[in-house]
Each structure stands twice: as structure tokens, then as C-alpha cells.
Design brief:
With 370 residues, this protein is of the alpha+beta class. The chain folds into two domains: 144 residues, no CATH class; 162 residues, Barwin-like endoglucanases (Ribosomal Protein L25, Chain P, Beta Barrel), CATH 2.40.240.50. It is built from ten helices and 18 strands. The strands form two sheets. A six-stranded mixed β-barrel has the order 5-17-14-16-15-18, surrounded by four helices. The relative contact order is 0.19.
Length: 370
């Protein structure tokens, strides 16, 4: 009885982390996120999930304070359970994520992967494209610390004279006041590394280093795929990482024009481990997604219901929200991490599938009776 009360009070605390929580007609509203009660037995492929792996990943997440705020006492309970499937069924309540602007609440699932590049610590005629660390003159202002209503909003720029002005756009990224991790041999590969957010660099001295997102210049991400569609270079139905890369290879004189359309520019840091997400957790292939934190709290356990690209094969999995991305906007929207290697790159590049998405929250079924 004592534990049940603790869990109940924690669940209430979890929802109170978000303003505007309300209950009406069995629909839960948390900020911009609207949830409709569901049941795991109705989910396709629920029985096929690898619950042992999921429990292990949950324990890994529970090391981090951000995740502890989401799960609280659930983390302690995870250490004592003997039946992983029963644990998820008894300790969590399932909700479908609702987006009234989407027909039938169907959003989009894209994919990303850990990029692989070739580089050198020394600049040369082959290795001439720098991978920058965060510049010394880049200033990041957390607007939420000044205006609470602007939580998660950041302003980036640099000081010129006595004014804070926007930071340089992609086309002006030369001779920055920044350390350089290494130089790579292909500017297109460097661009797609920014899109993926993390990767590994095979250096010319046979050393392998890992790099990941550290910051960006503050300009909004703009899709070069949309730019090519708008200019009637690639049909909308054919847009993919592969088709964009093929077009750039066939039109080398226009590479800078197309890449510079996206004024956003990512700065990196060298890391000890392979791809890690926004939580600082090393991402496990096909168990992690990037989400919009405006709607989905990082660390959340989600169920994605989609298909693999160019196939009728179902992609129906429990995954963790461990990352974010500049192009990931909306409630029913996620980016599926495929891992490292050729297969991962091919799948991620073609991935653009219809998505239904669910979230599992610590059991809150009795909150209405409080």
C-alpha cells in the first residue's frame, strides 16, 4: 500500500512537470501533447518485443538525472524485477499520441545513422574540409532562464562592437575562431554528417575517432531536398539521401549553391564512444529515436508503428526517445536510429514512412480519483 501511494504521488508529480495537464473524456493533455488511453494487448507485435533488452536499456537510462525525473521510483523497481515483460505491462500505462492536425493521427518516421568519413589531422590537397569545434566567439543565450515562457528556446550569435548579432551562415564559415578536430576529404560527406549528428572518422594514420553534435550557429535548418524539389531538380516522390547525393555528384558546379541553402551549420566535439544522443547515452541501433522535446520528454519509452522503406515489412518496436534533431518537429514525428554501416545508411536514406506513435507513462490510472 505504501509503494502504491508512492507510485501514485510520483505519477502526479510527473504530469505536473508539464503545465496545462488536464483530464477530459479519457483524454490526457500535457502541454501541447494530447494522449488517448490505449492497451498494450491491442498493439501489433507487442508479444514480439525483446523486453530483456528494453529493461537493460531502461536501467542504463536511469543513471541519468533527466531520465530519473521521468521515471522516478520506476528506476529502483527495474533493478528488482524478475520478469521483464510483466514489468512493462504492470508499471506503465499506454497512450496513443494524438495530433489533431494529422489525418488519423498519422505522422512521419524518418531515419538516421552513424556517418562514416575519411579524414586527417593535417590539412592537405585531399583533406581540406575542416570539422570545427564550437567557436570561441559563439554565444548561446538560454532565453528560458530570463523568460520562463520561452523554455527550451536559445539565442545564438556573436558580439560585434557592443551588439549581439546573428552568427555567420554556412556560406561564411571560413577562418573561424575555433579549434579544428580534423579535415575530411568530401564536403558533401561533411554536410550529411551534420544532418546525422554523429559519426566516426577514419584518419589517414589508421586511427578512428568519434565525433558528435556540440552546438550550431543558430540559423534555422532548411532542407536541401525541398530546395531541389522546388527547383524541379528531383521529383518529390523520389527525394531521399541517395537521390540527393546522386544529384550533387552529377552537378559539382552547383554543390555550394545547394548546400549553402541550408544556412544552419553544426559544430562538433570529439567523443570517446560511438553515436550518442541528446541524453548523453550511446545509442543502440533500432532502439533509439530522435523526437521533438517540445512534445516528447527525453528518456520517454515509445512504441513506433510504421514500415521499413520500399517494403511492406512492419517496423513495430518499443524504443527510447534519446535524441533530438533540427528537422524533427511535431508530436507524431520521430527519427529512427539505424546504427552504423552500409545497411544503416541505405535504410536511413530511404526512410520516410507513415507513423503512429504511442508513449508509455508510469502508471497513472488512478490519478483521477485523487
Amino acid at each position: 500500500m505504501k509503494y502504491k501511494l508512492t507510485l501514485l504521488l510520483f505519477s502526479f508529480f510527473l504530469l505536473s512537470l508539464f503545465s496545462g495537464c488536464s483530464f477530459k473524456n479519457d483524454t490526457v493533455k500535457i502541454n501541447n501533447l494530447e494522449l488517448e488511453p490505449a492497451h498494450h494487448s491491442k498493439l501489433p507485435a507487442w508479444e514480439e518485443q525483446n523486453f530483456d533488452v528494453l529493461l537493460s536499456l531502461l536501467k542504463d537510462e536511469c543513471v541519468f538525472k533527466k531520465t530519473q525525473k521521468v521515471y522516478g521510483d520506476i528506476c529502483a523497481s527495474a533493478l528488482d524485477t524478475n520478469n521483464s515483460q510483466t514489468f512493462f505491462e504492470e508499471y506503465f500505462t499506454l497512450y496513443q499520441i494524438i495530433d489533431r492536425d494529422k489525418k488519423d493521427n498519422i505522422g512521419m518516421l524518418t531515419g538516421y545513422y552513424e556517418a562514416s568519413l575519411h579524414g586527417s589531422r593535417t590539412k592537405s590537397d585531399i583533406y581540406k574540409y575542416p570539422l570545427y569545434e564550437v567557436p570561441d566567439d559563439l554565444i548561446t543565450v538560454d532565453l528560458g532562464s530570463i523568460y520562463p515562457e520561452l523554455k527550451r528556446k536559445r539565442l545564438r550569435g556573436k558580439v560585434v562592437g557592443n551588439k549581439l548579432v546573428p552568427y555567420s551562415v554556412r556560406s561564411d564559415m571560413q577562418d573561424l575562431n575555433s579549434s579544428i578536430i580534423c579535415y575530411v576529404d568530401d564536403k558533401v560527406d561533411r554536410f550529411f554528417l551534420e544532418v546525422q549528428g554523429s559519426g566516426r572518422i577514419e584518419l589517414d594514420n589508421n586511427e578512428t575517432i568519434f565525433v558528435g553534435y556540440a552546438n550550431q550557429n543558430g540559423h534555422k535548418y532548411r532542407s536541401i531536398g525541398r530546395y531541389l524539389v522546388k527547383n524541379e531538380e528531383i521529383p518529390l516522390k523520389d527525394v531521399s539521401l541517395q537521390s540527393i547525393r546522386a544529384w550533387l555528384e552529377k552537378n559539382p558546379s552547383r554543390v555550394d549553391e545547394v548546400l549553402n541553402y541550408n544556412e544552419s551549420y553544426v559544430f562538433f566535439e570529439q567523443r570517446q564512444n560511438a553515436a550518442t544522443g541528446a541524453l548523453g547515452i550511446e545509442l543502440r541501433a533500432e532502439y533509439a529515436v530522435a523526437v521533438d522535446p517540445k512534445y516528447i520528454p527525453l528518456g520517454s519509452l515509445l512504441f513506433v508503428d510504421a514500415t521499413y522503406p520500399n517494403s511492406e515489412e512492419k517496423l513495430q518496436k518499443l524504443v527510447f526517445a534519446q535524441d533530438t534533431g533540427g528537422a524533427i518537429k511535431g508530436a507524431v514525428r520521430a527519427d529512427f536510429f539505424f546504427g552504423f554501416g552500409e545497411r544503416a545508411r541505405e535504410l536511413a536514406g530511404e526512410m520516410k514512412q507513415d507513423l503512429k506513435m504511442y508513449i508509455l507513462l508510469p502508471n497513472i490510472e488512478e490519478i483521477e480519483s485523487l
